[in-house]
From TrEMBL:
PROSITE patterns: SOLCAR. This is Mitochondrial arginine transporter BAC2. Pfam families: Mito_carr (PF00153). InterPro entries: MCP_dom_sf, MCP_transmembrane, Mitochondrial_Carrier.
Length: 289
């Protein structure tokens, strides 16, 4: 996933600043691929290249950054929160490890799982707003099929006006299911791979740039692949407007209907784009260390 555990060795203030800069750099560098991923997931066909060519030709290259303000405003707090929860709970789950030693792999996995579950409650509304902005197209606007959404505040107001608090928190269950195990897997794969590539680095903190890049990229790719079908369901469920014409009544209905109408392959549509983005985002984090 999109986070970096190297900041855990420093103080909370440094983690907040470093995590903020790293998160912003990763978000900006990977956002066009994220927009392409969202469009692939919510469509019935289309390769990443075709989606990119279509969006740029009709809506312009800046449309790939549509909706970025919402996650940009929350990424610093989100990263700092994940780092702190993970740092605390990775040792809480395994108190037999002395403070002078790095957390056990069991503690790493359980701490990451807890951090992912808690932060998902905050990120779910942010992603709901982001997805609705990313999927807004000029074609629909010109045909008067939808009213142009001006930004995150406009989207939030419209959801509140039509659906209330329930509407803005649409999809928290599937977000928790996606983020809990994927965060746990991310931290475990990262720590394990780093130690295998650079023995002793978990204790002395002297891993190389290449070690961090490979371990972070691999951890990001593995964690995203593990939760990708859930991410597809989440995107489709959050993309719709909750009204009498809503296509899906819930996440289970979304899963069943998507598979029945488009086959099991729909659950993996855009996974290549996501894996590529995982390495790009982790590379941006490293340059901010």
């Amino acid at each position: 996933m999109d986070f970096w555990p190297e900041f855990l060795t420093s103080s909370w203030g440094k983690e907040f600043v470093a995590g903020g800069f790293g998160g912003i750099a990763g978000l900006i560098s990977g956002y066009p691929l994220d927009s392409i991923r969202i469009r692939q997931q919510n469509s019935k066909s289309g390769s990443a290249f075709n989606v990119f060519r279509h969006v740029v030709a009709i809506e312009g290259p800046l449309s790939l950054y549509r909706g970025m303000a919402a996650p940009l405003a929350s990424v610093t707090f989100q990263n700092a929160m994940v780092f702190q929860i993970y740092a605390s709970l990775s040792r809480t789950f395994d108190r037999n490890i002395p403070a002078s030693e790095p957390p056990s792999y069991k503690g790493v996995a359980l701490g990451g799982t807890a951090a992912g579950a808690i932060q998902s409650l905050i990120i779910s509304p942010v992603e709901l707003v982001k997805i609705q902005l990313q999927l807004q197209s000029k074609k629909h606007q010109h045909n008067n099929q939808t009213t142009s959404l001006k930004g995150p505040i406009d989207v939030t107001r419209r959801i509140f006006r039509r659906e209330g608090w329930i509407g803005i928190h649409r999809g928290p269950t599937v977000t928790v299911l996606r983020d809990a195990h994927s965060h746990g897997l991310y931290f475990w794969v990262y720590e394990y791979t780093k130690e295998q590539l650079h023995p002793g680095c978990r204790k002395n903190g002297q891993e190389s740039f290449q070690t961090m890049l490979v371990a972070g990229g691999l951890a990001g790719a593995v964690s995203w692949i593990s939760c990708y079908p859930l991410d597809v369901v989440k995107t489709r469920h959050q993309a719709q407007s909750q009204s009498k014409s809503a296509k899906y009544s819930g996440i289970v209905d979304c899963f069943r209907r998507s598979v029945r109408e488009e086959g099991h392959g729909v659950l993996w549509r855009g996974v290549g784009t996501t894996v590529g983005r995982a390495f790009l985002v982790n590379g941006a984090y490293i340059h901010c260390l």
